[in-house]
Amino acid sequence: MYMRELNQQPIPDSIKKGLRILFIGYNPSLTSGEIGHNYAGRGNRFWRLLHDAGLTPRLIKPAEDRDLLEIGYGFTNIVARSTRRADEITRQEYAEGRVRLRELISEHTPMVACFVGKGVYEEYNGHRSIPWGVQPESAVPGVIDFVAPSSSGLVRMKYEDILEIYRELSVLVNR
């Protein structure tokens, strides 16, 4: 695996003002870091979830992630460094990422900041025991905080249960 880690490249934020959704992950997987695109791991269900939830008109490939700016979807992570698992992220990386992320959201004010994983949102705002979906309070005024399950294949929720939450996101942004 050491050689694989040497081939990592930063994945640039894909963001602009006026987004419908800014998807926020923990950090890139090793596969995503190798190819430079979001949610590229073989077991990651992100692109299938977006399609099945009605958020994209067809199944998107990871290499097309930046094309989604055209329909109002952007991407970033709380931590830029690629790892095998989120538990490899340091407290310092989260602290720095929290500040950067709040600035990014404040500057670009997407309609929805969708945190892909409860842990991402917990690291972002410090709240625990949060529900799925729209959060009662937003960290940045004028931006809806929405928490969706991680799309990683390591998540043990049933696909249909995860999909239902992504469908709520689709209803929210397509009203």
Automatic annotation (TrEMBL):
This is Mismatch-specific DNA-glycosylase. Residues 14-168 form the Uracil-DNA glycosylase-like domain. InterPro entries: MUG/TDG (IPR015637), Uracil-DNA_glycosylase-like (IPR005122), Uracil-DNA_glycosylase-like_sf (IPR036895). It comes from the Bacteria. The keyword DNA damage applies. GO terms for biological process: base-excision repair, AP site formation. One of its GO terms (molecular function) is pyrimidine-specific mismatch base pair DNA N-glycosylase activity. The keyword DNA repair applies. Keywords: DNA damage, DNA repair, Hydrolase. Pfam families: UDG. The lineage of its organism: Bacteria, Bacillati, Bacillota, Bacilli, Bacillales.
